[in-house]
Amino acid sequence: MKLNQKDIEVNIINMNYVKNTKKKIKVPELHIMIMPGIILLFIFVYVPMWGIIIAFQDYKLHKGFSQAEWVGMKHFISLFTDRAFPRVLLNTLVISLKRLFFLFPTPIILALMLNEIKVKKFKSVLQTISYLPHFISWVIAAGFIFSFLAVDGGDLNGVMMWMGIIDEPLNFLSRPDWFHTILISSNIWKTTGFGAIVYLAAIAGVDPALYEAAQMDGLNRFKQTIHITLPSIVPVIIVYLILTLASILTVGFEDILLLTKQMNNAILRSKADVIDTYVFRMGLSMGRYSYATAAGLFKGLVSVVLLWLGNRMAKALGRNSLW
Amino acid sequence: MKRAKDDLIFEIIVTILLLIFTATMLYPFLNSLAISFNEANDTARGGISIFPRKFTLLNYQVVLANAEIYRAFAISVIRTFIGTLLSVLVTAMLAYGLSKKELKGQKIFMGFCVVTMYFNGGLIPTYVVIKSLNLLNTFWVMILPLTVNVFNMIIFKAFFENLPKSIEESAKVDGAGYFTIFTRIVVPTSKPVLATISLFVAVVHWNSWFDASIYITNKNLLPIQTVLQKIINSNVMNDQLSKMNANAAEMMRISSQVSTESLLMATMMVATIPILMIYPFLQKYFAKGVLLGSVKE
After folding, report:
1. Which of A263, B131, B178, B185 falls between 20 and 30 A from B94, CA-CA?
2. Contact status of B214 with chain A (Cβ, < 8 Å)
3. Cβ neighbours for A285, distance < 8 A, ≥ 6 positions apart
4. d(Cα B262, Cα A153) in Å, to the nearest integer?
5. Domain B58-297 CATH class label
6. Which of A30, A124, A264 sits opposite B97 (nearest CB)?
7. B 93-112: CB under 8 A from A
8. Paired residues of B55 in beta bridges
């Protein structure tokens, strides 16, 4: 009897405790958990957003925002009238279109091909190797590229001379006309394998009954790939296309910076200078903070418009949109 | 019958293309590895492909005797370790809180986070803010700005939302608070997603070079990738040699047997191998993690 009474007491205490936790601790506890993340985002993303106002000031690093002189649109006017800017804009657009054309489809093609490998172990080894470049830093990748393209002892020169295409070694990284090809090829090498993951996962979700029906109809494997697998993953492709469109002005920054040796390779600038590297050169190398911020802001605005347009397009096509 | 023949041809073509493709992925790495283990004077003759012709460990001896490389390597290790731990903890807690409908203002906080995926201050304003916080030339400048990753947060959140509710509910009845539930129940059941995100964050930290190159001027604080980038840009072998703890005669002997290229390749391998030793083992996890993120995006 005594024991039973004690149990009841304990239960009552427990129930009160539950009530209390529900009333008092519940909401603040969750807020405490998210606070570190929210504060860090505020400091390192939102405060810099407010810092964009320096695009409308004549900001000097040692003075701070409050003492800087307001100059309105001065930096935007000098940006659009700068002789270098049309070239920078053109490079950005040309590189991004080339990326869209060459870098966007390669992971899809790789995924479709990998899907045809039926020996699981072999497929898994191929995949592991194809992810490898993703896990290497751009610094190392640039080291590989410099070594591959080297004038003395570089493999590309070696092969081309052996095949008799050239008589003397070429200095590939001193020709502005070849820069885009080098840049895009390096990106294909680095991003294709990892990019294929999403499409492989999408392919794994295709209804097997579709393939059985196709086999009944006498379609061979190549035709099955084109008429069943590819159409099945179109929704995923469209989502990624929208995302790519939104970042069309972000044409890779690390890769260009490293391949041009932090833009010190001045010969390449005519083809390599894009908005991001321009911001870097003007802002951090030359100390024109306000001017560089104006260029960055211009890029941000265009990106937002493109994202919005892309999403509108996706909605109009009746596919899943981003929001 | 014709279909069987078509399929066979198709399979052969696909296999060959894939073999060529993966060989291209692998070649630069194996080539550099071979050069790093080959005698420099022999390498200069050219023609090293994926095997060293005259095997030597000298390149690695020089690189590993360089105090600067050692320090940079250590900084990268510490940075990766602390950075990953902190980022996974903060991001997972943020995601857990946001996965609860009863969090007051959940939609507003979520919006607050998602906005940062599309807008940011850009390079210069961020630099100015970091400078005015007196974070330049500190270790934490490599950690704090990378701590919250909203993309990873969304992956976490999607995973937490799919966890069975019943265990959490019964823990709540037993009087456990959210924090206890998080540490005792949610974290242990979320190992796959924790492994995936940890890998992603660790790779970002290990491979970062740009942040340190603009925020840090103190040579003793630079991570290995930034040091490597400076070596690649300047191509200085003598600099590497001069940092060895060796006498003059020994130095002369060594300098005739190594070259800028051979040392560079050895340094690059030192900076790459740690990551390459981890990722194949986590492959089955991150394939799922990427998918989860793309579905919920």
Report:
1. B131
2. yes
3. A263
4. 12
5. mainly alpha
6. A30
7. 93-94, 96-98, 100, 102-104, 109, 112
8. B38
Cα B209 to Cα B33: distance, rounded to the nearest angstrom: 22
Nearest chain B residue to A255, by CA: B210
Q: Where in chain A is the domain with CATH 1.10.3720.10?
A: 83-316
Q: A130, A123 in Cβ contact below 8 A? A: no
Closest CA relative to residue A110, chosen from B18, B68, B243: B18
Question: Model ipTM?
Answer: 0.87
- Check CB contact under 8 Å for B25 and A140: no
Residue A40 touches partner B, C-beta closer than 8 Å: yes
Residue ranges matching CATH 1.10.3720.10 in chain B: 58-297
What does the block give as tokens for A108?
Answer: 């899809």
Tokens found for residue A64: 């701070």
Give me the tens of pLDDT residue by residue for chain A, a chain 323 residues long. Answer: 444 544 544 444 444 444 444 444 445 888 999 999 999 999 999 999 988 888 898 888 777 777 778 888 888 998 998 888 999 999 998 998 899 899 999 999 999 999 988 888 999 899 889 989 999 999 999 999 988 888 877 888 888 888 888 888 888 888 889 999 999 999 999 999 988 988 988 888 888 888 888 888 888 888 888 888 998 888 888 878 877 776 777 777 889 999 888 887 788 888 888 988 999 989 888 888 899 999 999 988 888 888 788 778 777 776 555 54
Bridge partners of residue A58, in order along the sequence? A69
- How many CB pairs (< 8 A) connect A and B? 281
